[in-house]
Amino acid sequence: MGRDVSSETAPNRLAVWRPRAAVFAVWYLRVAAVLNFLGAVSAPFHSQVTRHNTGDFFTPYMITAGFTSGALALFLAMMMRRRKRAAWIFNVIVVGLYVFLMALLLALYPEVREHWFNWTSATVTLLMFAALLVGRREFHAKGDRSNPRLALAALVGGGAVGVLVGTLLVTLTNEADGSFLRHRIQYAAMRVYTLAPSGTGYRNIVIPHWVDIAINAMSALIFLLVLYALFRSPKGKEYLCPDDEKRLRELLDRHGERDSLGYFALRRDKSVLFSPSGKAAVAYRVVGGVSLASGDPIGDVEAWPGAIDRWLDQAREHAWVPAVMGASEEGGTVYSRHGLNALELGDEAIVEVDEFTLEGRAMRGVRQAHKKVGRAGYTVRVRRHADIPDDEMQTLLERADTWRDGQTERGFSMALGRLGDPDDGQCVMLECHDGQGELRALLSFVPWGRDGLSLDLMRRDRDSDNGLLEFMVIELLGQADTVGIKRVSLNFAMFRAVFERGSKLGAGPVLRLWRSVLMFLSRWWQIESLYRANAKYRPIWEPRYLLFARSSDLPRIGLASARAEGFITAPSLPSLFKRRHSRALDGEGGGSGGSGDEGAHGSTPSSEGTAATDTKQPIG
Question: Residue limits of the Phosphatidylglycerol lysyltransferase C-terminal domain (predicted)?
Answer without folding.
Answer: 249-547
